[in-house]
From TrEMBL:
<dbReference type="InterPro" id="IPR015927">
    <property type="entry name" value="Peptidase_S24_S26A/B/C"/>
</dbReference>
<dbReference type="InterPro" id="IPR039418">
    <property type="entry name" value="LexA-like"/>
</dbReference>
<dbReference type="InterPro" id="IPR050077">
    <property type="entry name" value="LexA_repressor"/>
</dbReference>
<dbReference type="Pfam" id="PF00717">
    <property type="entry name" value="Peptidase_S24"/>
</dbReference>
<protein>
    <submittedName>
        <fullName>Translesion error-prone DNA polymerase V autoproteolytic subunit</fullName>
    </submittedName>
</protein>
<dbReference type="InterPro" id="IPR036286">
    <property type="entry name" value="LexA/Signal_pep-like_sf"/>
</dbReference>
<feature type="domain" description="Peptidase S24/S26A/S26B/S26C">
    <location>
        <begin position="26"/>
        <end position="139"/>
    </location>
</feature>
Length: 145
């Protein structure tokens, strides 16, 4: 099976789903509660995380400009090219030959800004003379701890 990302074909060697056990109990993010050792079912991460398989790709984050929204350096990002992007979304964008991950903002004057989520960086204002393209919306960030 072939998948296409930005006009390039990539061979997907094993398109079969891998089912991972899903525990019956929920893990508390507050005060811990006793948990049963039961498995509810299996979970397919492709079904949970990927809505448009032929328009989805993974990319690894570099740098710390998005740490305030939980995207750590070396995080694996799941990017969906089929989802319509809106102001406020986290996107992967191309400016010239450079790729970046930023929050897309469209202000009241219609200006497009790519905003880092780290106060140490400044927004990028996109003007009409820039070679600019949104590659897709970040739908999930997987950080290693």
């Amino acid at each position: 099976m072939k998948s296409f990302i930005a006009g390039r074909a990539f061979l997907i060697e094993n398109p079969d789903s891998v089912l991972i056990p899903l525990a019956l109990w929920r893990a508390s993010c507050g005060f811990p509660s006793p948990a049963d050792d039961y498995i509810e079912t299996a979970i397919d991460l492709n079904q949970e995380l990927i809505r448009h398989p032929f328009a989805t790709f993974f990319v690894r984050a570099a740098g710390d400009s998005m740490v305030d929204v939980g995207i750590q350096p070396e995080a694996v990002l799941i990017v969906d090219r089929a989802v319509e992007t809106r102001s406020g979304d986290i996107v992967v964008a191309r400016i010239g030959d450079e790729m970046c991950v930023k929050q897309l903002l469209i202000d009241d004057a219609g200006r497009v800004l790519l905003v880092p989520k780290n106060e140490n960086y400044k927004p990028i204002i996109i003007d009409e003379n820039m070679d600019f393209e949104i590659w897709g919306k970040v739908v999930c960030s997987i950080n290693k701890h």
